[in-house]
């Protein structure tokens, strides 16, 4: 009896220690990431809330004038107006309603819009820093140099990134149900971001090395879901191939900037879910802001 | 109790369970890195219920692999996995549950926590639930509940399996920010199942094995024809009933030595005052009347 008790004790101790070891690693990792986030926030002079409050102050200072502008604004705001700088948007609205104001008033309004434009830019860089802090591991890593081809056989290499303001890269494989279910949404996203100078590119891990069976299956799935954006492959032994094969959860979607660097934290899960699309949009916005800041 | 006569398998069962769990999850550094082993070992499945997505996992989970193949649009049945499972079942049967399954060991360790222990004798009908889980969640739903492209979900893994949360979701989300961000309602639901199994395991002996495990159900079907059997020597047996009282799987070994629920743990052997119960491995007459031949 004593023997089995000692055994039980030893085993439960082993389990407890192994659990404790896991916990240790995790807590130290999370504390490291939280402290880095805190330090980056401290480095910034103003928070997003403070900046937004400043904007509101500017607007309320000339309340009566701005009310007129807002009243005559076009109510059909499109996605493009929402993604442009709010200051620019105000400025163009003022231009449109110019004839309602005196020269003096017009000057005040344009000056206000300019100020807001500057603040919006600060907010955008803040968002960028935020994304950088949360994606400490992925941030800054570049997509490896590669030479490959799209599924039609046209050559593709790293110059792909330089041609776009940002590139959304979706990793998937043929047998992955959630991956296939977001193909039509990725296609819609590709159509949408074209206007912003962005592009969606797919990398199917079963097509690496030009595996014909995988390519045929992938083409079938893309056709069935009506997806027409580019899908590319390269050698599985290359650095890019290793990058793709090291991904362990599918679908995973990265956003890369013009230099081929990762922006934000890669998204795990399909963008057919609203919250995932929102998370991806955050990375896209950060990449756009970064590109505009150049 | 005379320890020397006890079969070493039964005597060192705890160590064998610990060793099997370690071997099944041998890639220990991956726990700290938050990554998965994705090498050739994953083409083979391990005998016990052990999640593919455990950072340390050396092989695939047979139940998970089966569902993945059945749920894919290319195949309707997995002969490869079924073949491996039949081989395991015929060689060892539910000996795997008692000695090699990491989740079985986990429940046993929890049961060592001091608390009032409840008998499951009155809950015997619940045993049949696991056959329904095997048929419906592992075979039928992945096969039949498919999208227009013929792709199904691994229903057992996705909606029920607590081992996936314990070994996959929890350790990965502790070290991997992307996975952490992807946790949603489904994680909450399965974490509740895990919690229920954990609390259930403290008061009941192996509740998941008895009532829900589809892998246990599969091995149970093969337990009677497995090469690993129990043998009761009717000459030595004094019909004291100590074995039936000692059995935590609610089996009366003198009546049904190769009952579907017997996990070969050997507690009856420890309890037997006359050493009438033995393990037997191999072909030949397996019945308890064998020893009546002089």
TrEMBL record, chain B:
4Fe-4S ferredoxin-type domain: residues covered: 228-251, 253-282
An annotated GO cellular component: plasma membrane
Keywords on record: 4Fe-4S, Electron transport, Iron, Iron-sulfur, Membrane, Metal-binding, Transmembrane, Transmembrane helix, Transport
UniProt superkingdom: Bacteria
Keyword match Iron: yes
InterPro entries: 4Fe4S_Fe-S-bd (IPR017896), 4Fe4S_Fe_S_CS (IPR017900), Electron_Trans/Redox (IPR051684)
Pfam families named in the record: Fer4, Fer4_5
Entry's Gene Ontology molecular function annotations: 4 iron, 4 sulfur cluster binding; metal ion binding
Transmembrane segments: 79-107, 128-146, 186-205
PANTHER family, sorted: FERREDOXIN-TYPE PROTEIN NAPH (PTHR30176)
Name of the protein in question: 4Fe-4S binding protein
